[in-house]
Amino acid sequence: MNISYAIEGRHITKKMKGFFLDIDNLKIPKGFATALIGENGAGKTTLLNILAGIRLDYKGDLTFFGQYSDEEKEDNGTVKNRIGYTGTGKYYLPQWTVKDIENISKLMFESFSEEKFHRYCDELAIFANGRIDMKKPNSSFSDGMKTKLMLAGVLARDTDLLILDEPASPLDPLMRDKLCQLISEYIQNGNGEKSVFFSTHNISDMENITDYAIIMENGSIVEQGFVEDLKEKYIVIKGDATDTEAAGKILYTISSNPYGFEGVCLSENLEKLAGMKVTKEIPTLSQICVAVMKKNTRIVMR
Amino acid sequence: MQLKQNSGVPIYQQIADSFRTDILAGKYEQGEFLPSIRGLAKDLKISVITTMKAYEQLAEEGLVTAAQGKGFYVNAQDSEMIKEQHLRKVEDSLTSAIAAAKIAGLSGEELKEMLAALLEMDEQ
């Protein structure tokens, strides 16, 4: 498989009070949807802010679209015109009306299309009666509607990379499904040239469109890879109580009760389970993420 | 195409199986392109990497060829050769079934009965 990258990063570090972001090697594959997953406080938003250019106070090298350095991204408008970003609620100022959002977006981004913006406002049912209210201030929208409005704003432009910070969190289940559809359409229209990088806690909602997953813990990447490869690397194992103790020494993670155990095993250790009566299942991305996070967390699990 | 989430068969495998059946049944012409990987992913509501892996498997089997930047097209199918390949697969599988039957202490008659029962189940 010939892969090139929308973003590459080397030795990205940022020291903050009680927190150290330290990303040795970051690769966001071009033409795919990449999910950034991790516990609260793992450093996901810090990383996304660095990539989106919201934070510039970090050390390390970034390359965008295989050719632009981070400095060039900041100086050269064409790079930022190719990147769309949505954050967690504070992107558009509260007092801005829909008209302000439209005007400012037009001023800031060459490719912003009012027609497309209106179309997405309709498609995402942002206005209750189906008619766009230009005077409505951003502060009067609910969190979910604010996210929809940001998505409409970003999809109204012609971009090659979307950086979305927790887009699914404030959305209802139907709209999460729609979000997956929007991401899928975006990737398809790009024909291998457009990429999406999003952070999420709602792994199972986003699982079926996720191509590549990056799992962060404590400021660093602890696992990453194409989902199909991860699904071969980890295997879900279930077994009887009699084998719990022996399996515990082999499995990557395990949780047990008086009746048996369930856990995740690295494929390379699978043959060590020979002789035990266990069943194997292909893990979901969600199960893989929980196992990896459990292995690296400081939360006390019982 | 019916994709089952919890069948134990990976989704990419199910997709590859479905296209393999169609290709071998002659539903695709020689040189015809399969649906684009990203288009198929969108239509099936699955990830791009999954469809990609399905197509790569078909390419490994020699059923399709990847054309740089254009997608995957269907190869000329030499039906004799494919039949031959499958015959060999049947032979291999039966050989390993015989070996397993010996370990389990199954007689030849019992093994034949089991095969007959399985065939009957498959037909239903």
TrEMBL record, chain A:
User: Do you know which SMART domains this protein is assigned to?
Assistant: AAA
The ABC transporter domain is annotated at: 5-243
Q: Which UniProt keywords apply?
A: ATP-binding, Nucleotide-binding, Transport
| CDD domains referenced in this protein's UniProt entry, alphabetically | ABC_DR_subfamily_A (cd03230)
* Annotated signal peptide: none
MF terms (GO), sorted A to Z: ATP binding; ATP hydrolysis activity
Superkingdom assignment: Bacteria
Q: Which PANTHER family match?
A: ABC TRANSPORTER ATP-BINDING COMPONENT, ABC TRANSPORTER ATP-BINDING PROTEIN ALBC-RELATED
The protein's name is ABC transporter ATP-binding protein
From TrEMBL, chain B:
Q: Which InterPro entries does the record associate with it?
A: Tscrpt_reg_HTH_GntR, WH-like_DNA-bd_sf, WH_DNA-bd_sf
Sorted keywords for this record are: DNA-binding, Transcription, Transcription regulation
Statement: the UniProt record of this protein carries the keyword Transcription regulation = yes
Residue intervals of the HTH gntR-type domain = 9-77
Instruction: Report the CDD domains cross-referenced here.
Output: WHTH_GntR
Q: Which GO terms describe its molecular function?
A: DNA binding; DNA-binding transcription factor activity
Pfam families per record: GntR
Which SMART domains did the record assign? Answer: HTH_GNTR
Write the protein's name. Answer: GntR family transcriptional regulator
